[in-house]
Each structure stands twice: as structure tokens, then as C-alpha cells.
């Protein structure tokens, strides 16, 4: 078995959900080190700033701090993964609808990074329906998000919604 395998778990994490946290927990059980790579999000309009998303990701990853680091990246994910010596890329799959996109992305990444494996992890059943998009929308519309995100993230969401004048 390979030693000191580094896995990269990329995403915008806008915000980090309990499903993301569950995937991190599962990845830590499989890999020696996990880098949660928070995307600058050039292709998406994020609710939270990059720094806010990094702070939340670090806070929820705290229980795994000996194995998990949180970093930001912009540009090609390939450059980030290769620069850090990543041997695996972790992708979360919630449902069949995710698979088609993720399968295509894995093929493209394999073409760009032949030495890096893509590993699909599914969150626990109770988190499979959670998406950051749904959580943001529920929060903006005044709904309760406590069962979808950690208490810290729920608090940050409510503060953000108030600051945007959407409450």
C-alpha cells in the first residue's frame, strides 16, 4: 500500500454543508493527508467571499486538523494538485444526476493528470440530498438551515443574509 498519499477535495464550498463534512471524514479514513481546495469560483457567483469560505472550511475541518489542510486555488485545478503532490482527487456524489457531470470531469482530469486518480465518495444517506445551492436558497428565503450545515455555518449564513438585506 502506498504511504503518505495526498488527496485533494476541491469545491467552492459556498457554504460548506454537512454533506461536505461527511465526505471529508470519509476521505480522512482513506488518505494520509487531505487538502480541502476552496475554489476562487471564477465561474460561479458566490454568496461568501473566498476568505469567508476558507474560514468556514477550516472551522468545520478542525476535528481532523492533523490530516486536513484548507487552501484556496484559482486557475487550473491540475496545477494546484500537481504542485502539492496530490495522488488522488476526491469528488462527492449525491445522486445519479451528479454522476454524468463528475464522470466527464474525471475523464478530463485523467487526461490532464494521468498520475492522479479520481475517487468518488458518497455522503451518508441523511446528507445525500443537501446541496450548497439549496442551503443558500433556503437561508435567503428565511428558512431553517440548521439540519444541513454546522452551527457555525448556520450562524454565518444568517449573518450574510442579514447583511445582504434579504431577511
List the helices and strands and how they pair.
Elements: E1 6-11, H1 18-30, E2 33-39, H2 50-60, E3 68-73, H3 77-83, E4 88-92, H4 96-112, E5 117-121, H5 132-140, H6 151-163
Parallel strand pairs: 1-2, 1-4, 2-3, 4-5
Main traits of this protein?
167 residues, alpha/beta, Rossmann fold, five-stranded parallel beta sheet, 5 strands, 42% helix, 17% strand
Account of the 3D structure:
The protein has helices at 18-30, 50-60, 77-83, 96-112, 132-140, 151-163; strands at 6-11, 33-39, 68-73, 88-92, 117-121. The chain has a single domain (6-127), classed as 3-Layer(aba) Sandwich (Rossmann fold), CATH 3.40.50. The chain is α/β, with parallel strands linked by helices. The model has no long low-confidence stretch (mean pLDDT 91). The longest helix is centred in the middle third of the chain and has 17 residues, at 96-112.
Tell me the fraction of residues in β-strands, as a range.
Answer: 15-25%
How many domains in all?
1
Distance between the termini: 52 Å
Q: Which ranges are low-confidence, i.e. pLDDT below 50, for 5 or more consecutive residues?
A: none
Taking the sheet with the most strands, its summary is: 5 strands, parallel
The secondary structure category is alpha/beta
Architecture per CATH nomenclature, i.e. the level-2 architecture: 3-Layer(aba) Sandwich
Shape: globular
Mean pLDDT: 91
CATH class: Alpha Beta
CATH superfamily: HUPs
Q: What is the CATH topology classification name? A: Rossmann fold
